[in-house]
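Checklist before submission:
- one chain only
- standard amino acids only
- sequence pasted in full

Submission:
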Amino acid sequence: MKYSGWPSPGELVVGRVDEIEDFGVFVDLEEYEDKRGLVHVSEVASGWIKNVRDHVNEDQMVVCKVIEVDEDAQQVDLSIKDVNDHQRSEKVQEWKNEQKADKWMEIAFGEDIDDDRFRNVANEVIDQYGSLYKGFEEAAIHGEEALESTDLDDEDVDAIVETARENVSVPYVTVTGYVDLESAGPDGVEDVREALKAAEGNGEVPEEVELDVTYVGAPEYRIKVKAPNYKTAETQLEESADRAREAIEATGGTADFHRERRTDEE
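Returned file contents:
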């Protein structure tokens, strides 16, 4: 998705070198609709420049800093030399991420999605997270909860979450569930303790998974799972709850697994 407005002074932008002249370089702005900027020869590189083509090539992707914007004159003045290596690398990665997010939108809503709907959905996500990519990443980690503060309808949220969980690679995901454990027997406290040990894994949890079971408020306990991907996290959460249920029911107790917390905040 390209922005329809203008960049702001000081902003870093990604552009493609369209034309090279002795006085400077014309750059098509990849993130903005029908916007073109000029890098004056003095802003191409530090020091004296004998030949601009020694520093840039036509069709080359460049990261520029916006120096000045004159909307009336339809002019954007840019600088290449004022962008350091770290800024350049970070901006290029950000731009590539947003291109990925555009592809995910097409997967979620179809390649024939009209521009207005694309923008309406994308802007809801961008308003929430600052970028479309970040929104998809959060949807992959937190599911529908990540988009509950937007004005997107349930169908749109489901499409984004499903696409995110199938396509977004994240460093880890964290899922949480709750289990109520009760035992009315004479050894009820010990029965619950053993059920909690079972929930923690008894050595059955994979090395790449972190699983914690903590007390919330009788009879509720929180199961929190951190894993490399959503599928693994959900599987380990369900298996943890199942182990607790089997252990407590073997002593005559009961277990109730649920995703939302029921007790008051500590």
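Reviewer check: The chain is about 35% helix and 25% strand.
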